[in-house]
Amino acid sequence: MKKVIFTLLLLLPFLLMSxxxxxxxxxxxxxxxxxxxxxxxxxxxxxxxxxGCYLVPVSMEKEKAIxxxxxxxxxxxxxxxxxxxxxxxxxxxxxxxxxxxxxxVFTIHISEEDGSAMAFVxxxxxxEDLSLSxxxxxxxxxxxxxxxxxxxxxxxxxxxVLIDDNGCRTLAISFWNMREDMYSHILLKLDYDLNxxxxxxxxxxxxxxxxxxxxxxxxxxDSTQYYCVSYTPNNPYYYxxxxxxxxxxxxEQIRFDSDPPVYLQxxxxxxxxxxxxxxxxxxxxxxxxxxxxxxxxALKIDIDNDNVDFLRLSYTSDEIDNxxxxxxxxxxxxxxxxxxxxxxxxxxLYQYKPGGYYAYIPVFDANMKKISEWYYTQGVKxxxxxxxxxxxxxxxIILLGSSRFKIYDEILWEPYIVKFPASAFDxxxxxxxxxxxxxxAVAYPNPGGxxxxxxxxxxxxxxxxxxxxxxxxxxQEITDDITSIDAxxxxxxxYIWKLTMNNEQLTVEEGKWVK
Length: 515
Fold this sequence. Notes:
By secondary structure, the protein is mainly beta.
């Protein structure tokens, strides 16, 4: 595939000044008209057309609009269109689905009249030429006595609108009354023509929860029940699987405990169903006993056995904070692999840290066995806040997120899209992984102090650290995910680290670490 790297004119001078070259994925694309500030940036989503092209929505909050960008299979921008919405309302979120070769966009809006809030859901078609149908309002609800500043409204299922074989859709709307600290959850079932055929409302009393349906609503394998995950508001935050029949009636609540116990107060990632085994998974950020900072874990719920499997992916005993954005953090491949995305070493979400915020890409199987883990970075001048992973019809992998960088004293943000072939995540093909900017190990914190940490899922590898004169200052075998090295006796400066295998005949990873 021909490599295409797009970047913005305003960013080009900065890239040319950087001493670190751009990575080499299949292609990289930064759509838009220029860097945007964080107040006007909302996460991207992606959907694949039947012709192999992709539709990417970018929320333009300040302009009260959504920009839809169509890109081809090689990353080239084909078309753009803008969906403008009512200046008197606030758009809370939007969802995409594809049915009968047409993309459908569902948006939920909030407006205020006479001191009370009004919520409504609208629908619009987007065709392959990016032409738009007329906008149609399909649901409206008056929220008595609640002002806009005291509420939060979200529209969910796990990754797209749920559609059954008859073309009926199900939406889950989460409403938080901040003044009363109360969640309500509105379930809507629509027929083929988007007429409401069932509407149910549940609140904390029914679902034992605070966060409720956030990204968790899904079918079971044979589309005879709905599931959503909720949790108690008090430590240790027990999780429940709520089971609904196809008329949206709550029929069962199953409490899940994990072994070892884990405090699941910040799962963040969307729960989603694996289309190949019917089990429900999430990639999340949690805190466990005796650990003060975020850890990335994977969880699998097996409804048939009423249990949850728990896989620790990024455990650290130090002050490295790892996070998962609340979005689509998992994708499923036909060969059984499950690929996730998170952020490794996020020192401060709202501060610029050159070289930090590695995109962390774990790979595990349906039995919760870790196969490999990968790191991706755009270079020492950038942070990337990856939040979405997507598998294409050809089983390639696309990451979406925002790139943060600094020009002079100004911190700028830019949405980005990066595509990799699925074969690049094969641990037996390291050369291909490196060719696409993926790495099997990372040194942190960088720059650091008296301790240098190497994280890798590799085993039977040898770590060697060299000073700037090429002298070996440390050497040992890799036996654990995290190898901590006492660097207190080293001089300040730059060091080169290498991981080798096959009796040092093959260098699988190398990099620089600064003390």
